[in-house]
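Long-time lurker. I teach an intro course on protein structure, and each term I like to show students one example going from raw sequence to a predicted 3D structure in token notation. This year I'd like something fresh instead of my usual example. Would anyone be willing to generate the tokens for the chain below so I can use it in lecture? Attribution to the forum is fine with me.
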Amino acid sequence: MKPSLRAARATDVPLVARVLEMAGRGHRPRGPWDFVFAEADERARALQRIAGGEPSWCHYAVFRVAEQGGEAAAALCCFEPRALGGTSLAAPLAGAFRELGWSEAQTARAAAPLAPFMRCFPDMPDGRFIVENVGTLPDQRRRGLVAALLEHVLEEGRARGFETAQISCLIGNDPAFFAYERAGFRVVESLEHPEFEALMGAPGYVRMTCAL
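-- Reply from a regular --
Happy to contribute to a lecture. Here you go:
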């Protein structure tokens, strides 16, 4: 069955929150959101606040959703950094910390593990069509939803006049890597750091681009 593709709506915030969590983990058991928000209940609340709060590249408004059988099953985001006012997540993270009622000391401790991620996550240049936060609900995988979403958003990027699309992939996440390759992306940069590998169990990220 061919999936139905659409822009995300406010009612998709729970799905987007789950996709943020899955995308951060890649093929590993934990990702950045797990390190910042260690408790599952707090993580779920925080990610829903991020997905529905301040504008950012983790906000539902920049997501596209694939529906299968009338149910939202997969999503990814696409955006141009300048149009968002930059790629900082400081404001949505602050909103999530307020949502949880955390003290300054708690937020400082929680934010500390993000440093290795910042060393390895690729830059997202202005003027480039960025695709990120790709994820499918576990029981909906291997149905071509990500491939359909990638094709859809790359066509959107072309229609909006962009020349290059970019996506990142955690090194070792072979299913994601090959899906991006099939969509036309190629590796242009590898960013690795021992602190990242010690934390995540993966060397770092690759930056992949696709000519539009």
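Some talking points for your students: The chain has a mean pLDDT of 96. The chain is about 40% helix and 25% strand.
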